[in-house]
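Task card 7
Instruction: Convert sequence to structure tokens.
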Amino acid sequence: MKVEIYSDIACPWCYVGKRRFERALAAFPQADSVEVVYRPYQLVPDKSEQPEPHRQYLTQRFGPQAEAMDARLVELGRVEGLPFDLDRAIENNTLLAHRLLWHALTVYGPKVQGALKDRLLTAHFAEGADIGDRHTLADLAAQAGVDRDGAAAFLASDDGREEVLAEIDEARQLGITAVPTFVFEGQWAVQGGQESSTFLSVLEQVAKGTGATVSAAPAGDTCADGACEVPAP
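Output:
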């Protein structure tokens, strides 16, 4: 079974959804036969390539509700065992990080790409790392099993840029407007950071060939419970 996960490093529900899906996968008897691949998606593709404090950025984008959104995530992280330190978090354009994930998948395969995805999400949401900085990304890549010099050379070039942008465009053509979105066997979609029990049920249904479509029903240009969404162009 192949599972393609469309997500953005800047999306907190992608962080939560990854943990919940992995918990479901650990309980799935046929887990060894499941290949998980991360696909790129940008919630804010026109975000400047300059680091910006998370609190400042979120308030500018969402207004007064930003503080409550962060408080909800910190509490959710505590329940899920995920660290959130949003006072330190830095926002930046995520294209470089997506290119690095593409490089990891192309050169090293899905398992290393998954490890890198985890490292990027944790660094962004819990460690105050600038995921738009090439040196920081190369260090994080090395911690996930990617050769640091190779990662640095890749990030200094334009390699993978067109391929990643094409994948992001393809996601929009498929109708994906919210992340995370989990696509099973290229046929069945589950949107949002669902509970682990939901993911496990879907894995079982897909294994039987019946499939399922589940939506978290996010609302507007925001991160609602379950998913982060962008408005239609």
